[in-house]
Amino acid sequence: MSIQCVLFDLDGTLLDTSYDFAYALNQTCRHYEQQPLRYQDIRKTVSQGGLAMTQLAFPGLEGEELEARRQFFLDVYFKNIDHHTRVFPGLEAGLAEIAQKNLNWGIVTNKPGWLTEKLLENISFPSKPLSVISGDTLSVRKPHPEPLLLAAQQCGAEPENCIYIGDHPRDIEAGINAGMQTGAAMFGYLPEGAQETAWPANHFFETPIEITHFIREQL
């Protein structure tokens, strides 16, 4: 199938946000007199969302106590959201290739809109994404296909002519549900022991530069 549009997950696929998340979570640990966590442990949890990261730092907590810590964590993250966040090294050339070929592209993330918008304010790309769909843009989110289908529509592409690239099994599931080709970003925030055999993706990218090569060769 011809690929006319590239859609990316945000955290762990397009942008390396792990350092700013790690800073915010460990600042939260210090505030609540909890032992800070290892960066690598936090990194493996980023794609699971803010609640999962808060639970990682405060195991056993639930209810109002856990929610208070989650809100504190997200507030610190919001205030420090782009200090160390960058496009994954090697992927910048792929985005430049998309711009040179005048291809449409977009972002579909489960990150809430208030964080997505704040993050993207100070991140520059060679060409502007035609679609940015956040976790609360619609009443459903990935792995439901609707966010991806809306992104395809906004990019002026049929789903079968899109590829969706993400670093979490729900990303691949969402792409399949939407009738798109899928790419697994195996360099992302994968849990320990993640294997390609468990991902029914069409394409596997071990490094960001492989996405750039794919764009050059296939698009």
Tell me about this structure:
This protein has 219 residues and is α/β, with parallel strands linked by helices. The chain has two domains: 146 residues, HAD superfamily/HAD-like (Rossmann fold, 3-Layer(aba) Sandwich), CATH 3.40.50.1000; 62 residues. The strands form two sheets. It has a six-stranded parallel beta sheet with strand order 5-4-1-6-7-8, with helices on both faces. Strands 2-3 form a two-stranded antiparallel sheet. The chain is globular. The model has no long low-confidence stretch (mean pLDDT 95).
Give the key terms.
41% helix; two-stranded antiparallel sheet; HAD-like_sf; globular; single chain; Rossmann fold; alpha/beta; 9 helices; 219 residues; 13% strand; 6-stranded parallel β-sheet; hydrolase
Strand order of the largest sheet: 5-4-1-6-7-8
Q: Can you tell me the CATH topology of the largest domain?
A: Rossmann fold
- How many H/I helices? 9
CATH H level, superfamily name of the largest domain = HAD superfamily/HAD-like
CATH C-level category of the largest domain: Alpha Beta
As for the number of domains, it is: 2
Tell me roughly what share of residues is in helical segments. 40-55%
Q: What oligomeric state do the depicted chains represent?
A: single chain
Largest sheet: 6 strands, parallel
CATH architecture type of the largest domain: 3-Layer(aba) Sandwich
Order of H and E elements: EEHHHHEHEHEHEHEEH
Number of strands: 8
Poorly predicted runs: none
Distance between the termini: 11 Å
Q: What would you call the structural class?
A: alpha/beta
EC number: 3.1.3.18
Pfam families: HAD_2 (PF13419)
GO molecular function: metal ion binding; phosphoglycolate phosphatase activity
Keywords: Carbohydrate metabolism, Hydrolase, Magnesium, Metal-binding
